[in-house]
Design goal:
single chain; alpha/beta; Rossmann fold; Alpha-Beta Plaits; 3 domains; six-stranded mixed sheet; four-stranded parallel sheet; 16 helices; 18% strand
Length: 413
């Protein structure tokens, strides 16, 4: 099979002129905190979470739809997605006067469903996951003649996503390492091809590192095998990059242009989301925070200017609530303590005084004497507390133990 050749630098530049009609030029912010974390001279973050539709997907979708013939436009387009691709296609179709039908799974987050409909698309809720929605979308395309718009495995989509790299390098030509989230590979294949060709044209060198969620990491396995491999994904908060098999075209580009692929856990991603909220005042969805997660966990070794793309900011508020709690727990700023107490009056007050003396804040209290694993003369006190970090949390636990209490952190006896 002939290996796919990505767009040339000139073609990426031409694509940028096309997508400029609808996309915003998102800011390239700096982060001193992240630079200190990885020991780099500078860290840049490209804020595609502030893009129209809340994610980078609009670039590739608009570029693909803009190339449709009048006869194709008359038949309309169809896509399948649980979020960002759906919104990108819906918005692009509206701007170009094309009818769009989007298939989404039954459990799709309400904000994403409403946004897709508000952009003018007709939404069909089919299937319990994106794979089932995808099958329905393909059947619809066969039955109606509507053009199916793939989320990543398409030359025009790849070209559209690559325009992000051109904007970043125009704003910060000193970038030496580029860190990009990977799902199917549309974003990184476009950005890597554009960045590497730009670097060659300007006598520079750029290293490109991809980041996948460890529960949906198809690329390390596929790269080792030398061809796309389908894996069985596990549950992950980074649903935007939870793809079981690399795109065919994307795999060819990544094999040639990407220097390394690393993985991060859901805990790492949750910590990154909290960090971006606190330090940069930026709301980033789990998939979009993967690059930052790789940085704060030591997966990125770079002394020179380093950059990542915050690929999206579309997160369900209910998920955000859970992610913040999880991120605080992962950073040891939110602790769940299980304390074994004698079943005597005054013990609850005494433990509260010890915690207060350490300047920790109690969030939730659960007091029970009915757990079957408890000694009959004891009760269990479950405290959820806020701390200033690992060291402070350890001080609280030490103070309780010095007072004679048996304490477990986040586990049962």
């Amino acid at each position: 099979m002939t290996k796919y050749t990505p767009p040339t630098l000139e073609e990426f530049e031409q694509t940028r002129e096309t997508v400029r009609r609808v996309v915003q030029r998102t800011p390239l912010a700096t982060s001193r905190f992240l630079a200190e974390q990885i020991g780099a001279s500078q860290v840049y973050v490209k804020c595609e979470n502030l893009q129209r539709t809340g994610a980078y997907k609009l670039r590739g979708a608009y570029n693909r739809l803009s190339k449709m013939s009048e006869e194709e436009r008359a038949r309309g387009v169809v896509a399948a997605s649980a979020g960002n691709h759906a919104q990108g296609v819906a918005f692009a179709a509206r701007e170009l006067g094309i009818t769009a039908t989007i298939f989404m799974p039954l459990g799709v987050a309400l904000p994403k469903l409403q946004a897709t409909r508000n952009y003018g698309a007709h939404v069909e809720l089919v299937g319990v996951n994106v794979e089932e929605s995808l099958a329905a979308a393909n059947r619809f395309a066969e039955d109606t003649g509507a053009l199916f718009i793939p989320p990543f495995d398409d030359p025009a989509v790849i070209a559209g996503q690559g325009t992000i790299a051109l904007e970043m390098l125009e704003d910060a030509p000193d970038i030496e390492t580029l860190v990009v989230p990977i799902g199917g590979g549309g974003l990184i294949s476009g950005m890597a091809a554009a960045a590497k060709q730009w670097a060659e044209a300007n006598d520079k060198a750029i290293r490109v590192v991809g980041v996948q969620a460890e529960n949906a990491a198809a690329y390390p396995v596929s790269l080792a095998a030398g061809h796309p491999v389908t894996i069985k994904t596990k549950a992950t908060i980074a649903d935007g990059i939870a793809v079981a098999k690399p795109g065919i075209l994307n795999f060819d580009v990544i094999s040639e242009y990407v220097d390394d692929v690393v993985t991060v856990s859901d805990d790492d991603i949750a910590r990154a989301i909290v960090l971006m909220l606190e330090r940069s005042k930026l709301l980033v969805e789990p998939a979009g925070a993967a690059g930052v997660a790789a940085m704060i966990t030591g997966k990125i070794n770079s002394a020179g200017p380093t950059a990542t793309v915050l690929s999206g900011g579309n997160i369900d508020p209910l998920l955000l609530q859970r992610v913040i709690g999880h991120g605080l727990a992962a950073a040891n700023r939110y602790l769940k303590l299980r304390i074994l107490l004698p079943d005597h009056p005054g013990q609850l007050v005494r433990t509260a005084e010890i915690v207060a003396a350490q300047h920790a804040n109690v969030i939730e209290v659960l007091h029970t004497r009915h757990a079957t694993e408890l000694p009959i003369s004891d009760v269990e006190l479950e405290l959820h507390i806020e701390t200033r970090g690992s060291e402070h949390g350890a001080q609280v636990v030490a103070a309780l133990r010095e007072a004679g209490y048996v304490v477990r952190v986040g586990e049962r006896y």
